[in-house]
Sequence to fold (266 residues):
Amino acid sequence: MNFYDLAYTTPDTLEKIRAAEARGEFNEHLDPIAADGILPVNENFPYRPRMLRRIGYWFLHVAYLDYFIRKLNRNYFCTTVVGTENLEGVKGAVFICNHVNKYDALAVNYALGKRKIKIMVAEFNNRPGLLGSFMRADGILPFKNSGPILRKFINAVNWYLRHDIGILFFPEGSEWWCYKKPRPFMDGAFHFAASNNVPVVPLFITFTDSDRSCTNGVNLPYFTVNILKPVYPDSSVSKPQNVELLKKQSYESWVKTYEAFYGDTL
Fold:
């Protein structure tokens, strides 16, 4: 399997995106999900891996994953990063990004440099084989709405944020390949930021057209990862109010970035 092929899409997926947009349904999963390519998440999932597993993950990073992330961003996405100054003084934080590619978390990894983060993903992203090993080494935290597993997920997210380790969320809830506009947010990321009194750091990926033809004639654009100013909880309001405040301000920062970059008004 050529892992770089996962950066691409097909014309039928783009058509599904256009149809869902026309219906006003912005959170649907539109890429096919193969049931036989999923490793079920159970109570043994290493949300907080022990030392031996951490050493194994470190080795995978050094031996392959770091190189893959650099090559993907330099040769395939041609990623430009702007706004790194907005990370100054930020430690544990909730990072949010528009979900526009199967590998957009790796674009965020590239943009954040040496800063290590954990990545909230849907359960079906827990893959078997070498691909799954790389994803777990990169810090995926699969969400499964099931009793004890959900509690382990929540406890892990809270633990990482309390220990100055960032968590990446995709608040739109689903991946739409190279979709330019911000989509409606779900509450989860902002709930964790408000609960742990940490900032939200919005990131927004924008695209520049290219003449590079990829799978099935679909053009792969150039990526720009825009790191925007952090949004902080307000200690004078309640947690539910903070959730709405963080959500609103983060979305507004995405809209401003979209409008400035594309010269378009939402």
